[in-house]
Specification:
The chain is an alpha+beta fold. Helices cover about 40% and strands about 20% of the residues. The longest helix is centred in the first third of the chain and has 28 residues.
Amino acid sequence: MAALRVARVIRSTSTCCWRAHSSQATAAASKSKSTAGFSYELTEEQKEFQATARKFAREEILPVAAHYDRTGEYPVPLIKRAWELGLINSHIPESCGGLGLGSFDACLITEELAYGCTGVQTAIEANSLGQMPVIIAGNEQQQKKYLGRMTEEPMMCAYCVTEPGAGSDVAGLKTKAEKKGDEYIINGQKMWITNGGKANWYFLLARTNPDPKAPANKAFTGFIVEADSPGVQVGRKVEMICIRILILVPVISNLLICHKGNHI
């Protein structure tokens, strides 16, 4: 663990140095609680997280926010810069090369980024949404493969649950996954997928129990789907009247073959 922290300090010297501080922040907070009771004060490391995000939002996001909102362009340069500063993928555990930040630390960062532009902030934070099922329920191999790659270079993932006829009503999902040997055949359509078409991989939820009376906790299975898998089709971007920077698209799975090792 100590070697990991030292390596992070070396790696992040040119990018505000705080990529390496998340585990220290957690330790400092725990130590503070155990010796002095609960404190509402931010730790020094948390203040660094906050200050870095604030500086990035005010000096790099704000000056170009109107341009991106007007043109609807995806903010690739800002995404890359956020990755360099450690302002993205904050929940990825240390075992996969990430910071392993908790919810409060992530909220400090998110609040500051949203001041610069809610669209940029949502695109960045959508990564955490797509990653969370893998963090919570993925096995070690899945976590190393799909979370680990996101710490090696800037890339996005997406959360494919919402559908045209169900909205965010998970129990009403129609996308189906049928098991054939060691593979699943997935058919269905997802809608309004944030970062769709820009994602390297998708978390996709599908019905695997054909019984319509099956309880929701036994009716569905989550899958990790590579964006370039045969059968994945990305539709046209949905135009919005606000936060136009976001990429919201339909993602269609027609006879998508997903290997057994990619189900959660």
